[in-house]
Amino acid sequence: MDAIYTSALNRSVPPARSGEFTPLEVGPLTVWPPVVLAPMAGVTNYPFRSICRDFGAGLYVSEMISARSLVEGNAKTLKLAGFGPREDPRSLQLYGTDPDHVGEAVRRLVGEGRVDHVDMNFGCPVRKVTRKGGGAAIPLRPRLLASIVRSAVNAAGDVPVTIKFRLGIDAGRLTYRNTGQIAEQEGCAAVGLHARTAAELYSGEAHWDAIRLLKDAVAIPVLGNGDIWEAQDALRMMRQTGCDGVIVGRGCLGRPWLFRDLSDVFDGREPSDPPGFGAVLDIVFEHARRLSGWFGESAAVPAFRRHLGWYTKGFRVEAEIRRRMMQARTFGELAGLFSRADRGQPFPPAAMRLKRGKKGGVQNVVLPAGYLESADSEAPPAPESEALVSGG
Question: Is 188 a catalytic residue?
Fold first, then answer.
């Protein structure tokens, strides 16, 4: 691979040696390479998952699904929980705050044969969720956390359940080791740690040292999440922390070929050069076609605009075209905007580590009044805490 496409951070990171890493075992599922697509609301629907799967193997998790909405039969939720005809294994992330809703949702998913793996989100840092006691606030109530996880595991039977969470609310209230131990005690098959606090959102560098500490604290597989921008980052994380696999989120936005690169380095090969602008545009409009076929064009076009921004990030695109692509109403309009594009542009090296998706910044995490004083409570938070938002 041309060294210009590898950041200085990763130029000394060699591909995996034969036998250096082993497949990720999640209950009965064997995953190679040990790579998981992070659940991202509004992003990791079936069309996007299918594009990523075309580039490499791994475990591809659905976007976050509300347990309450699923139980109530919400049509939009049922569509978001859908899988493609040849999608295997079928992995779904469930978000819930009430053990009864979670248990019933898992029973339905498993009983109808709709899933092969259930992941649960306890890391959402969004203010409107934490201020109601949901998301990243739940690990502050370990008995409630245990009750939710137990309900999911009991309802799942032989289908493996995993959970994903953050370091804690902030640096003064770290809960990740206790959360991992609760997951293990309640029968989870693996845990995933986004190595930032809820207060940090997506800012700064992820604290990979905490992934090592979690790995030392539990006997089940640990997945590390945070700052996997290039394939070599995954190798660095696993070598530094001893984790069993990696979770890839923002790094694949507009760059689904990252999964090809990950397959390469875990199989001992140097990753291929990234595609030029012409090949990227081919991927863009194949993604658009699949999204339109799944949701219908009127719903797909607005949802696709941000993907188009991610795909074209770093390439030379006129400001007027960028403005118009955010206003397009049909995929025909979008295709017309790029009909005269310079398809010969190589992938811009500076774009390898450009941040996509949610940006940095920090916050003061808001919790319900008296929440910390009732940490032993098993009472579920308010139903509004299950608002379906992205995060984790």
Answer: no
